Amino acid sequence: MKLSYIQRGLGKLDNDRLQKAETVLKAVFEDIFDEEEDHGDL
To answer: Do the beta carbons of residue 30 and residue 24 sit within 8 Å?
Structure first.
């Protein structure tokens, strides 16, 4: 899966919103990776 659309959107954000997006994305990806470890493969 390509994530280029996320990169384009992030490039349009100011620093405050970029920091908020980073926090949210870290949480989302941590959750995804934790699920993969728990269930093997999604």
So the answer is: no
